Amino acid sequence: MAKVLYIDYERCIGCRACVIGCEECSGHDHLSRMFVDELNPGETVAASPTPCMHCVTPACAESCPVQAIAIADDGTVLSASLEKCIGCKNCTYACPFGIPRVDDVKKVMYKCDMCYDRTSKGRPPMCASVCPTDTIRFVDEHEIKSEPPKEVQFKWDFGGTVIETRTVIGMPDTETNRYGFREGDGVQS
Ligand code: SF4
Ligand code: SF4
What pLDDT was estimated at residue 156? Predict the structure, then answer.
């Protein structure tokens, strides 16, 4: 059964261990594929870690003119192939989550591939391994989507275009909504 990233926003303390862990991964050239945004700096440590969302129909791959972005059998959307990528940046414009980056010197895209070298062997990705608060977990996809421990989101409505992601977000309590989180379509409790 496929496993996915489950990110519980409510647990993140903004320590950026996931960013450092990603930077230190072999082959990452000290460039993190994980991004952590502070939600209300100075008022709270609340932060939101964002890796690739691993869309079920990935716009990055669909927009690539040279088919450099492959999708693994388990649905993981891989980073662009070094041999094929021409650095055109189409994927950066197409991705609704703003995830892919292009190295302008090497002319190659890079993004999170969920540590496919590890996850394809059942091991958790580096970000999940180093997170001290269990914000990021590598969990069974079916379990987290059909029997979520709390309100989760994995469908996103971009002006009528609904995108389903394999990365699943654990939503904070939206009734208090203190840190700028919003309710969205596809929220499942
Ligand atoms: S390692 Fe965990 S707690 Fe630290 S910033 Fe990343 S997700 Fe948040
Ligand atoms: S989040 Fe962006 S980079 Fe990741 S699979 Fe979806 S479209 Fe591609």
Answer: 96
Distances in Å between the Cα of 103 and the Cα atoms of 88, 110, 113, 182 are 11, 7, 16, 33
pLDDT tens-place string over residues 122-136: 999 999 999 999 999
Q: What is the largest CA-CA distance in the chain?
A: 49
78 touches ligand 2 (CB under 6 Å): no
CA 138 / ligand 2 centre spacing (Å):
18
pLDDT tens digit string along 35-62?
999 988 888 788 999 999 999 999 999 9
pLDDT at residue 167, rounded to an integer: 97
CA-proximal residue: ligand 1, atom 2 (nearest): 131
Tell me the pLDDT tens digit for each residue of 98-153: 999 999 999 999 999 999 999 999 999 999 999 999 999 999 999 999 999 999 99
Tell how far the Cα of 38 is from the centroid of ligand 2, in angstroms. Answer: 21
3-state secondary structure of 170: strand
- Which pLDDT value is given to residue 189? 43
Indicate whether residue 99 lines ligand 2 (CB < 6 A). Answer: yes
Task: For 108-118, give one letter per residue: b (16+ CB within 10 A) or e.
Answer: bbbbbbbbbeb
* Residue 109 in contact with ligand 2 by CB distance below 6 A: no
- Out of 6, 25, 34, 36, mutate this one to test ligand 1's pocket (max ligand atoms within 8 Å of CB): namely 36
